Every structure is written in structure tokens, then in C-alpha cells.
């Protein structure tokens, strides 16, 4: 599903003026896209009804939340199907794109930084020796350098662009410059927090364009200010899939590095490597060279 220019504009309008869009009856996604996903959910519900299946999955949980009895799945209302589709789509968007994006950028940083790849590989091999050679959850969690590399990737190449909130009360933001006026954010104002602006602020991370996983090392992490590293957001609406996302990224990289050395190719873009947008535009070219050990 491609996102058109108009789709992008509607997305922004939906965030800024959700009620206006509702009054106008405008939909963010095209009819074709909506019908595609609604059909998938309908088929899944039909399959559950016909085969009396109820797995411990998201659709089942949502059906329970709506108090839909198993015997009445054939007459489920369009409204509930739409709601379940919206939730399933949200999970797909939030979970899939973010994780694959992080993986791509992590691979990119690894191929540009040979020393980091060697250190990572040595940590992976060393840790697995302590865990009977098995790639398990506990083994992955014991890899501190891998954790630092993933966090640094998420700082420099944050998969989401902003966090959106609404001010619950009037709030004053004082300027650092005494000649500038205090900014009043009125109750109800939509607030967008640009993650990358915070991640690339030299007051938070010195030499911010540099990929340096050691910023997050055990000895350095006390220097990281609260709310200065927010790839998963923060507060009660922060990412629900934080653990899942981190675990998947770490698992895939561990398996990849165990079996291959990742190398740049002649096409790999190196000029402005900290500029995520440029990197994506050029594509991420990588050679997988099988390890022989
Ligand atoms: C590297 C991977 C991921 C990153 C960087 C990421 C990032 C984010 C961010 C920035 C938010 C908004 C948080 C806020 O506004 O404070 C968010 C929300 C969310 N994420 Fe993730 N995410 C990742 C993986 C996942 C996965 C794997 C899932 C599900 C399986 C997931 C499910 C969600 C959900 C449901 C929300 C909405 C939470 C709410 O509104 O209460 N995410 N994520």
C-alpha cells in the first residue's frame, strides 16, 4: 500500500483536526485499502466461526472485549469488524514497519563501522558460549554491547518522526534567552514532539551525528538526560511493543552476524551516513559473506 501525497496531508489533518475530518466524512485511507484490510479480518472471523477456532491472539481478545459470543460470529456488526480492523492495522503499522526499519538501519551502521561489527560478533560468540551455544532470550538480554548498538541506531535513525500529545492544562515554557517571551501552550493544544530534534541536540548528545554505541555503555549511561532518548516515546502512552521490538531486532542481528559478515558494496551510500532520509533514498546495499568457522 503506497502513501500518496493526499494521504499524507489527510494523515496530518487527522492528527490536528480529527473532529473536522469526521464532520466532513473524510477517510484517511483509500476505499481500496480499507476494503482490503476489512476483508482479511472478515475472513479470519469467518474461519473462527466455521472451524470453532479461538486462538490466544489479538482478534480473539478484541472479540471477547466486545462480548461477541462464538456462536454469533456469523452476525457480527460492521461497526465491530471496522473497529477490530483498525486495531489490527494499528498493531501491524506500529509493530512491523518500526522493527524492520530499525533492523535496516542497524545493518547499515554495522557495514559502515567494521570495528563495531567485530566487537558485536565477539560479544555474541562469547555470550553464547556461556549459554550452551543456544540463541535464547536470556542470552540476547545478556549482550550489553548489542543493547548499546541498537539504542544508538534508534537515536540516530528513529523510525517514527514525532510523538503527539494534547496539553491537558495551560503550560508555560520559559525561553533560555531572557530577551524572548515565555511561550504559553493553552489547554487543548495539540503538541508534536520531534524525537530526532531531541536526539540530535548536542546538549543531549555531544557530536550528535557520530554513531557511537558507547554513549549507552554502563560507564556512560548516567550522562544520558531523562527524556533525551525517546525512540519508544515516554509516559503512559509509550510503545506497547518495546520489549518485543527490541528482542526481534536483537535476535535477527544475532543470527545474521553468527552466519555472515556484513560488508559494504560499491553501491553503499557513505557520504552523509547520519542523514536517515538520504540513506533510505539511496537504498541500503549490503553483501552477506558467509562465515566459515
Ligand atoms: C523498534 C521497534 C519499535 C519502535 C521504535 C516503536 C516506537 C513507538 C513509538 C515512538 C510510539 C509512540 C509512543 C508515544 O507516543 O509516547 C509507539 C507506540 C506504540 N507501539 Fe511501538 N515501536 C516499536 C515496536 C512495536 C511493536 C513490535 C509493537 C507491537 C507488537 C508496537 C506497538 C505499539 C503500540 C500498540 C503503540 C501505541 C501505544 C498507545 O498509543 O498507547 N510497537 N511505538
TrEMBL record:
GO CC annotations, alphabetized: endoplasmic reticulum membrane
Known cofactor(s): heme
Subcellular location: Endoplasmic reticulum membrane; Microsome membrane
InterPro entries reported for this sequence: Cyt_P450, Cyt_P450_CS, Cyt_P450_E_grp-IV, Cyt_P450_sf, Insect_CytP450_Detox
Family annotation (PROSITE patterns): CYTOCHROME_P450
Binding site for heme: 239
Family: Belongs to the cytochrome P450 family.
Protein name: Cytochrome P450
Amino acid at each position: 500500500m503506497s502513501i500518496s501525497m493526499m494521504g499524507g496531508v489527510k494523515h496530518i489533518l487527522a492528527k490536528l483536526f480529527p473532529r473536522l475530518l469526521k464532520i466532513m466524512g473524510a477517510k484517511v485511507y483509500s476505499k481500496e485499502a480499507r476494503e482490503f484490510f476489512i476483508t482479511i479480518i472478515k475472513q479470519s472471523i469467518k474461519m473462527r466461526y466455521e472451524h470453532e477456532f479461538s486462538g490466544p491472539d489479538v482478534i480473539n481478545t478484541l472479540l471477547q472485549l466486545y462480548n461477541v459470543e462464538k456462536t454469533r460470529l456469523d452476525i457480527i456488526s460492521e461497526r465491530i469488524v471496522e473497529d477490530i480492523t483498525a486495531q489490527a492495522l494499528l498493531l501491524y503499522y506500529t509493530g512491523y514497519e518500526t522493527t524492520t526499519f530499525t533492523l535496516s538501519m542497524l545493518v547499515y551502521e554495522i557495514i559502515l563501522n567494521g570495528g563495531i561489527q567485530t566487537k558485536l560478533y565477539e560479544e555474541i560468540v562469547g555470550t553464547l558460549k556461556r549459554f550452551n551455544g543456544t540463541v535464547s532470550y536470556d542470552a540476547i538480554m545478556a549482550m550489553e554491547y548489542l543493547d548499546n548498538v541498537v539504542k544508538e541506531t534508534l537515536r540516530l535513525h528513529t523510525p517514527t518522526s514525532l510523538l503527539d500529545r494534547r496539553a491537558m492544562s495551560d503550560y508555560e515554557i520559559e525561553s533560555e534567552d531572557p530577551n524572548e517571551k515565555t511561550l504559553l501552550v493553552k489547554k487543548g493544544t495539540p503538541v508534536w514532539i520531534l524525537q530526532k530534534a531531541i536526539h540530535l541536540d548536542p546538549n543531549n548528545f555531544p557530536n550528535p551525528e557520530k554513531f557511537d554505541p558507547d554513549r549507552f555503555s554502563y560507564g556512560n549511561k548516567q550522562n544520558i538526560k531523562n527524556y533525551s532518548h525517546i525512540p519508544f516515546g515516554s509516559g503512559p502512552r509509550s510503545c506497547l511493543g518495546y520489549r518485543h521490538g527490541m528482542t526481534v531486532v536483537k535476535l535477527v542481528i544475532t543470527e545474521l552476524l553468527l552466519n555472515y559478515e556484513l560488508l559494504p558494496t560499491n553501491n553503499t551510500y557513505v557520504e552523509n551516513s547520519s542523514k536517515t532520509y538520504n540513506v533510505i533514498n539511496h537504498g541500503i546495499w549490503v553483501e552477506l559473506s558467509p562465515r566459515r568457522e
